[in-house]
Amino acid sequence: MRLFLVLPHLLLFLSVFSLTRTQTSAPSTYAATTPAAVTQTTAPPTPTPPQTKAPTTPLTTTTSPKTPTITPPRTTVTTSPTSPLPAPQIFYPFGSAAGDSINPAADDGGSSVIPLLSPFLYFGRTYQQIYVNNNGDLTFSQNLEQYVPYVFPGNGSQDIIAGLWTDLDNRERGVVSYNQYTNGSVLTRATQDINNYFPYLTFTASWVFVATWDKVAYYPVTDTKTSFQMVLISDSSNSFVLMNYGDIAVAGQQVEAGYDTINSTNYFVIPGSNNGISISNLQNSSNVSDPGRWVFRVDGGPETNRENVVGLQADLVSFLDLTESANMQIVLQQIKQELVKKGLPSNINLELRKIKKINP
């Protein structure tokens, strides 16, 4: 399908790809429920990463113990000279005041298995349990102690949602906590948020899961403070993930933010999030109207009414919005979100074919 976009002073030509295949998942020994035949999409072409990395093999969930002697961080690692600001308004309630459960203070640790009060559909697989891992990610089939993230797409053996996957340490500083809700004001807020971001849906949240990393330090730089939050929202058939970012300290280590699935049939990397030096920009970036928040639909999306979308008009501030590589990825992600709202499946892949400046 060829998509033609009309923008002030610019013409864009995009190709939209949507391929499906039927994949039968192997039975799991965990509480995750996998349909016998799941319709999933083939992975989009693997993007060329902005820098060469040696990703850790994603098929394993354990890493060798850290040696007692740690090489001090490079001089490029800096710490915040002032205390982080209070949690921004985009954060959902968290902490002791919200009745959260607290993860053990353990390097590379995490929660025990958490039974979900409502099943969560994640790209065709339905899960009834979750793990909150101290190193900044959520997994479903088993915990993940791995402290060096692999680069998405990892073609790994488990589904993962990474708010900020890196080597975090809550022993000296910070709290990792979680809670889930089936009624009350949190569900009301989640309903309003999803209907605001996806106005063509009639959505009423029936379950919300909130996991928060509050002023957690990087390992071994214990005076750093990083705060972020992942919010899972569902009405039992539609599933969404909100990633909220507060103060993010500069990191001198490998980082990754986004999501990945088994065999990477669906994945997304927040632009710039795999660069520890620029990771603090997450608190100002977004694919919606709220700085510091990224929103994704993760159930798999609708599979019908694909031909209802024939065009899209958008406003850009300047030509640089499209010529800057990181900006282009954000623009394409925003366009994708609009297409999904209009009825296209969430697995569509957008490729920029041509940019033409039609006015000075």
TrEMBL record:
Keyword Signal: yes
One GO-annotated biological process of the protein: cell-matrix adhesion
Signal peptide region: 1-22
Any Pfam family hit: NIDO
Superkingdom in the source lineage: Eukaryota
Region entry Disordered, spans: 28-82
Compositional bias annotation for Low complexity: 28-43, 53-82
Domain NIDO: 163-301
Keyword annotations: Signal
Protein name: Sushi, nidogen and EGF-like domain-containing protein 1 isoform X1
